[in-house]
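Example record for the data management plan.
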Amino acid sequence: MSSNENVTNHARPSTGEPKVSWANVPTRTVLVDGTDFAYRTYGPDRGVPVVFLHHLTANLDNWDPRVIDGIAAHHRVVAFDNRGVGASGGTTPDTIEAMAADAIAFIDAMGLEKVDLLGFSMGGFIAQVILELRPELVGKVILAGTGPAGGVGIDKVTRVSYTDSIKAVLTGKDPKQNLFFTRTENGKARSREFIARLKERTENRDDAVSVKVFRTQLRAIHTWALQTPADLSTITHPVLVANGDDDRMVPTSNSHDLARRLPNATLRIYPDAGHGGIFQEHRQFVSTALEFLAG
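Corresponding structural encoding:
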């Protein structure tokens, strides 16, 4: 680890205490170009670590414990708050390219010479730019609930996010219940389970994301949506593309588009699932992801 790291939660499991999990793993900071970035890492200290890249408005506590614990059972995982998000310092960038540059700088500051990436939603945009900027840094990539630059319907994210967030406030729900899950009885039930899992960590939780950060990230996503599509044929890395069959935020057609345009891609679509399909069907997804990463 970098000599610039600090531990902000000094709890350490010892004999008789629960094993390290997403519910209790310490939050640390590492200095990245003069700015403290908050992160959490755990799992076997061997092999290629998996760096998690997060979605719109997300802090560390928004990762589904079943997904991240499932991957951490076999791989070292590293998740961090983007610049200006949660407990990380600095100002939130207003472009995906700047977020990708920050992610690369964070990975370098952590002393990681090779990583696999798991990018969800906006994190999937960031992962694609990392592949363009530093292809040699990356082994394998998982792109979930995401799409390419200029992807169909991504420019509607702002409207969908505002509309569903307002509905959530009026109905006493978390916005992710509407944004990430289908409105079928199955989707509603899985959404409630997901929100309950996000609350399993009860101590040393991350800082809430501000409205200013929300708006800045929306601008970055909107710009991504209007960009000229990149030439994805140059990305030869193994890629797992995953999504639900009814994604309202980044329409599922974008997942099919990624799988067609990436030369070495595998596609997994989960039925009766939305943008958060990897969370709704976490058991299937973790199993598939582990097989992909091991292969």
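Summary line stored alongside the record: The chain has a mean pLDDT of 93.
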